Amino acid sequence: MKFSRMFIPTTKEAPKDATLPSHQYLVRGGFINQVGAGIYNFMPLGKIVLDKIRAIVKEEMDNAGANEVLMSFVTPLELWEESGRANVMGHELLKFKDRKNAGYVLSPTNEESVVDIVKNRVTSYKDLPLNLYHINTKFRDEARPRFGLMRGREFLMKDAYSFHATQEDLVREFNLMEETYKKVYSRLGLEFRVVEADSGAIGGSGSKEFMILANSGEDTIVVCDSCDYGANIEAAKRKELKKEKLETKQIEKVHTPNLKSIEEVTNFLQIDPYYSIKAVIKKAIFKNSVETVVFFVRGVDELEETKACNAVDAIDLEDATPEDLEKANLIAGFCGIIDFPKNIKVVFDKELIGENNIVCGANEEDYHLTGVDLTALDLEYKDLVVVKEGDTCACCGGKLTYTKGIEAGHIFQLGTKYSSAMNATFLDSNGKAQPFIMGCYGIGVSRLVAAVIEQNHDEKGCIWTKSTAPFMVDIIVSNSKKEEEAQAGEKIYNELKANGVEVLLDDRINARFGFKMGDFELIGFPYAVVIGKKLQEGLVEIIDRKTLEKVDVALEEVTSKLL
Ligand code: ATP
Ligand code: MG
Ligand code: MG
Ligand code: MG
């Protein structure tokens, strides 16, 4: 491909709200542009990268025996009513009506659609197992879309759903998917950790997340320095708790009112009811002793948030310093923004946690915001004990440290949650109808475009890994007006192409050398071949984007050097 024929709208300016390198460089490098809040266009380079990631995901899923399908992006609300998720999903689920007043949703995930496909089509245990996947647009009306592709509202996900006759077979597939995911992230050239995770409101028991290690990651994970153990802090906390069960059992509940309505809760808290609906009150108990209360507040606008924060002496998440967040993580085990549920259940122990401190759960709606199964927070004290850095809890006895990760994939053992709700059954070997036992497996394909850059960049721009680079080599013709340089460029270009190397020829007549070089560094192709003054001696320069090292190479040897 010739640079002069490609649409690569690079710019010097980054969007004002772009704080992450991936957001800045992907926009500046002409990979993507923003259409609306959390909604992006992919420009030619961005589309190439997205397709490369998608192809690797597809290849590994196919190798694992999964079948690619394409489920509709728009799904009837009826299906969501059948599964019981129409109301549980909260505001992330975008619902709308057609001209006949029928309800629809933009799919944020596709459990309902896939159960509907399999229901009455797969009827016998003999047809199982089955794993169906698709790679398709998702829409989640995220409360705070941000960080470019990292947290979009419209994004691309690979989601797979498996169906089994037995729990053992589900576990086998779950393990196969874990191995498949590891192959995907390894092929993408990423450093990652598989961590034990909470299932969130998606449901089920076993669940693992795949975290791309990067300082900018929104998730805090605990990793062991001596083995592969990793967990998001919620799950690690639970594991630690098992050990502490005896100790925790000794705590006596002094007072446990079961507050069922918002009014009861707000009276109890003595705060403005309106804000209490929007407030999240996080209480932390650290190993039987009371620590700070962490409040996070979500209001409908900034002024309200500020007022609410003042009312309950809270930190607005947006204003929280890294230290605040760190503290919140250390204390509460996680931090997030949660609305009060409709049927809130508060467990309160005056003596233990003090007059003004409160522990509260939240509803299923918010699992997307926290990644935590908040319905499981029927709160018991033990749920709030956290693992400390430096603890040796959880695995081989090695030291645990906190690190940051980007959630790039999540696999779940769903069980029969959706098949039971939607009455999707098969006949087992005794001829008895049983609900399908299911697993589901997601990969954030468009989030991965950003994750690659979060892990691979410098102050000049992107540094693509070999498998994700839009082109492997950028041939920079220093002065395209010079006949010999232009010809040498064409020669190398044709040779590399003939040898199967993905190559871009920067043949722009009116762009100066410095400008072409700047684009190379910003866009981040793994190699550049610079054709300049040394051509008279039969030499060109190869630049390694990662190290920025330059070597002179004879014109005839360029191709063999780059193969
Ligand atoms: P998060 O905790 O970041 O909100 P999630 O737990 O809600 O993610 P899942 O329901 O597990 O997400 O979806 C599977 C994958 O889809 C995630 O692991 C992530 O890589 C990707 N994903 C989820 N939400 C978004 C988003 N808003 N933008 C881009 N990718 C996303
Ligand atoms: Mg989410
Ligand atoms: Mg999550
Ligand atoms: Mg998840």
TrEMBL record:
Recorded catalytic activity of this chain's protein: tRNA(Pro) + L-proline + ATP = L-prolyl-tRNA(Pro) + AMP + diphosphate
Gene Ontology MF annotations: aminoacyl-tRNA deacylase activity; ATP binding; proline-tRNA ligase activity
Residue intervals of the Aminoacyl-transfer RNA synthetases class-II family profile domain: 33-470
GO process annotations (BP): prolyl-tRNA aminoacylation
Catalytic activity, EC: 6.1.1.15
Predominant localisation class: cytoplasm
Superkingdom in the source lineage: Bacteria
Enzyme class: ligase
Alphabetical keyword list: Aminoacyl-tRNA synthetase, ATP-binding, Cytoplasm, Ligase, Nucleotide-binding, Protein biosynthesis
Nucleotide-binding in keyword set: yes
Gene3D superfamilies given in the database record: Anticodon-binding domain, Bira Bifunctional Protein, Domain 2
One Pfam match: HGTP_anticodon
Cited SUPFAM superfamilies: Class II aaRS ABD-related, Class II aaRS and biotin synthetases, YbaK/ProRS associated domain
Function per UniProt: Catalyzes the attachment of proline to tRNA(Pro) in a two-step reaction: proline is first activated by ATP to form Pro-AMP and then transferred to the acceptor end of tRNA(Pro). As ProRS can inadvertently accommodate and process non-cognate amino acids such as alanine and cysteine, to avoid such errors it has two additional distinct editing activities against alanine. One activity is designated as 'pretransfer' editing and involves the tRNA(Pro)-independent hydrolysis of activated Ala-AMP.
Record remark: domains: Consists of three domains: the N-terminal catalytic domain, the editing domain and the C-terminal anticodon-binding domain.
Binding partners and assembly: Homodimer.
Family membership: Belongs to the class-II aminoacyl-tRNA synthetase family. ProS type 1 subfamily.
Name this protein carries in UniProt: Proline--tRNA ligase
Species this chain originates from: Malaciobacter mytili LMG 24559
Gene that encodes the chain: proS
